[in-house]
Amino acid sequence: MSAVEASVAVAATPEELFARLSRLENHWALADRWVEVVSLNGPGDAPADGGVVRLHGPLGVRRTARTTVESVDPPRRMQGMARIGERTTGAVSWTFEAQDGETLVTLRGELVEASVLDRALWALGGQAWMARRLRITLDRLRAEYLPR
């Protein structure tokens, strides 16, 4: 249906970044106050392979998403899905590309299918809101790797 994407150069190797972000709790630690982790699930001490997050949007809009890790290609790419209710599905991917001693990190979100309500929310500002959330997440990641 529609996608948003943001990229940033980070002073780390793809291997370092992939290792850090292969743990879902580290994804959500980068998110700002608009994303709340409700739960993470996974086998034993292994990294979580999904969970539940609550998105707090403008004007009091709240959506709860069940997330799953769908595929990983270390250290280049990881992809997951987010499901809201029975009709709305989004895809999220992280890609890591070595570039001039840094790594270009791209975070992409795509609305794959949506209920009538979620389609309307996306069109009425949700897409722009999500684009800002991706940019903020990547800026926070980059800041963690800046020289001190």
Task: Considering the chains and any ligands shown, give keywords for the structure.
globular; single chain; alpha+beta; Alpha-D-Glucose-1,6-Bisphosphate, Chain A, domain 4; 148 residues; 7-stranded antiparallel sheet
Lay out the secondary structure.
Elements: E1 2-10, H1 14-21, H2 24-30, E2 35-41, E3 50-56, E4 62-73, E5 77-84, E6 88-99, E7 102-113, H3 116-144
Antiparallel strand pairs: 1-7, 2-3, 3-4, 4-5, 5-6, 6-7
Q: What would you note in describing this structure?
A:
By secondary structure, this protein is of the alpha+beta class. It has a single domain (2-144), classed as 2-Layer Sandwich (Alpha-D-Glucose-1,6-Bisphosphate, Chain A, domain 4). The protein is built from 3 helices and 7 strands, in the order βααββββββα. It has helices at 14-21, 24-30, 116-144, and strands at residues 2-10, 35-41, 50-56, 62-73, 77-84, 88-99, 102-113. A 7-stranded antiparallel β-sheet has the order 1-7-6-5-4-3-2. 24% of the residues are buried. The mean pLDDT is 90.
